[in-house]
Structure formats: structure tokens, C-alpha cells
Amino acid sequence: MERSLRRAAVFLVLVLAGPGLSVNAADDELPVIRRSFAEVNEPAPPFTGGKFEPASGETIAFLGGTDIVDLDRHLFLESAFHLAWPDRDLHLRNLALQGDTIYYQARPQNFYTRKGDPQPGSIPDHRERTRPGIIVLGFGKMDSLEGAESLPRFIAAYEKLLDELAPLTGRFVILSPTPFFQSGPAAAEAGKRNADLEPFVTALRELASARGLLFVDLFTPLRTEPDATLSPNGIHLNAAGHRVLAGLVAAQLKFPATIEAPNTLALNAAIERKNRLWQQYYRPTNWAFLFGDRQHVPASRDVEKREERWFVREIDSLPGLIAEAEADIQRYAKEAAK
Questions:
Q1: Cβ partners under 8 Å of residue 316, min gap 6
Q2: Contacts for 182-186 with beta carbons within 8 Å, 24 or more apart?
Q3: Residues 226, 32: Cα–Cα separation, whole Å
Q4: Does residue 190 sit in helix, strand or coil?
Q5: What residues does 214 pair with on adjacent strands?
Q6: How far apart are CA 78 and CA 1, in angstroms?
Q7: For the chain, domain boundaries
Q8: Highest CATH level, class, for 41-99+133-275+296-337
Q9: Which end of the chain is more exposed for a tag (fewer CB within 10 A), N or C?
Q10: SS3 call for 1
Q11: Where are the beta strands (DSSP E) in the chain?
Q12: CA angle in degrees (0–180, nearest 5) for 136-133-53
């Protein structure tokens, strides 16, 4: 019930915000996903020799739709990164939102915009932005439902997004979509949908090759050996599906160590806590009272100290708590990797 209420609240603010722009965003605002990242003087260099190798202290950010969002709930891939590089002190940030496609990334009004709500007492969104490092993109599955005739438009939109992010980093990993599974109410449509999806996967592989980016094929292995139990609805992955996804990513990016260890309970608990705090920070539900158009109303103020904004105070406390959780993650990863 709690998760359903959170998603309903997110959906409401997205409906109000529109496709990829704030309601009152000025024309000079950056594209919505670019705004989530901190600006840099020089972009991070590409992977050396086409080898996936995270730098010490680097941030790995994820963009995509629902399956990417669900990486926060199914911890296999995030745990694998930390176990493979336990001494790198990596930071993982999920910037995806349910319903995101390559064309449409709706966000609340004033989401990371330079200018905030114009009403008296309102302030712009001043949350910390994600440091650009490695960016992992997972788009294409839902986009393919428009049919093969939309493929040129899809690749053009993908290239546009890469161009928008190129001033921040040259370190990209493109994840192909997973296939449609023979499960759920549209199980009989899986074959046709996969036939439509296959050219999108091929085009993404070619796009990655042309730009010198890394590519992970999640489509071919899962289509070659289909397993309907990996998806509850034929589209999104369940826990078993995310375990397989983590294994495919680790194998194709050549992780240097096993992605599982026998003593990961403490590590996974710390990751889960960090992800819960990050979700509260990056995707807060009561947005209108935080940086939206309800900042000026009495309910957004502290009951006793009327000059203080209680929600802003809570949000500003989260980066410190996230840092504490990440310190635990890094400590437990070192212990588990032994």
C-alpha cells in the first residue's frame, strides 16, 4: 500500500509537469536529465581501450524506465559492482523514473531548474546534483511498441540524449532492452513484439560501436533461452530476472570478481538503506510543498518557527545520511569480498 501511494503521488506531479520540462521552466533551462547532473569543467574521458573500469570514488548513474527504477529494489547488480571493486568506493545513483522513455522524461515543476516558483517565500531547487562519471542507459523496450517505422526517430532521440550528456562524460554503457516474455496478459504477443524489438537492439549495438561506447546485450541471451518465470507481466523483470540481468552485465563488462558472496546480508541491508534515502531525496513525493507552487502556504512552514521550511530542512539532512549509508556499503563490501 505504501509503495502504491508513493507511485500515485509521483504520477500526480508528473502529470502536472509535462514531458521533460517543468511547468514554468524558462527557455534557457537545460534538458531535464542534464539538469540532474552537476556541471564539470571537462568531461570524464572515455573508457581506455574499451574496457569497463570504474575509477576510485566514481559515480555510476542509471537512466531508463521501470526496469531501471527497480534496480533500487532488486540489489543484485548494485551489490555486484561493489563486490567486483570493493576498494573503489563507488557511488551508485538511480536517476530513472517509472514511465521514462527516450522521448519523454516527465519531472515535477522546478525540478533542478535555475529559477524556482515566483511566489514570495519560495526558493529554487538547491538539492545536490549527481556527479557525472559513468552513465548507464536502458531505453528502448517500450519505445519499440511503436513499430519498426519509428526506429529512425528512436535512434535520433537516443543520439540527442547522448549529445546532451557528452559535455559531462565520455563514459557510457548502453544496455539493450530485455525481450518480451511469454507471461502476463499479453503472453501470446511476445513473439511479434520481440520481432519488432530486435531491430532496435541491433541499432543500439551499432550506435554504441559508432560512438565507441560499451554495449551490453540483454536481449539475445534471454530470447535464445526464454524463461517466462523471469517476468510477472511479460514486460518487467522480477527478482529472478534481475539476478539474471546482473549476471549478464557482469559477464559482458568482464567484472574482475564474482558477483555474489556468501556473506552479503550486511552489504545488501546497507544498499537498501541508501537506496531508500536516495529515493526520498531524488524523488520526494510532496513536491509542491518542497520546491513547487505550494511553498508559500502556511502548511509548508514550521509550526513554531514560521520562517523555517520544515520539508526543506528534512531534505537537506538526507545527503549526510546517504553518505553514512555509503560508508557502510563500502566497509561491508570490503569484508564480503574477502
A1: none
A2: 182/226, 182/228, 182/234, 183/228, 183/229, 183/231, 183/232, 183/233, 183/234, 184/231, 184/232, 184/233, 184/234, 184/235, 185/233, 185/234, 186/234
A3: 36
A4: helix
A5: 173
A6: 26
A7: 41-99+133-275+296-337
A8: alpha beta
A9: N
A10: coil
A11: 59-64, 91-94, 134-138, 171-175, 214-216
A12: 80
Q: What does the alpha-carbon distance between residue 176 and residue 203 come to, in Å, rounded to a whole number?
A: 10
Residue in the structure block whose three cell numbers are 555474489: 260
Q: Which of 103, 132, 130 is nearest to 31 (CA)?
A: 103
Residue keyed to cell 568506493: 89
Task: Quote the cell numbers at residue 92.
Answer: 551508485
SS3 (DSSP) at 59 = strand
Among left, alpha and beta (phi > 0; psi -120 to 50; other), residue 337 is alpha
* pLDDT of 27: 61
Sign of the torsion formed by the C-alpha atoms of 282, 78, 242 and 65: positive
**How is residue 136 written as a grid cell?**
548507464
Contact criterion met (CB below 8 Å) for 18 and 106: yes
Q: How far is CA 122 from CA 111, 119, 126, 222, 298, in A?
A: 14, 6, 12, 49, 12
At CA 77, angle to CA 97 and CA 271, rounded to 5? 80
Residue 245's nearest CA partner among 103, 136, 92, 135 is: 136
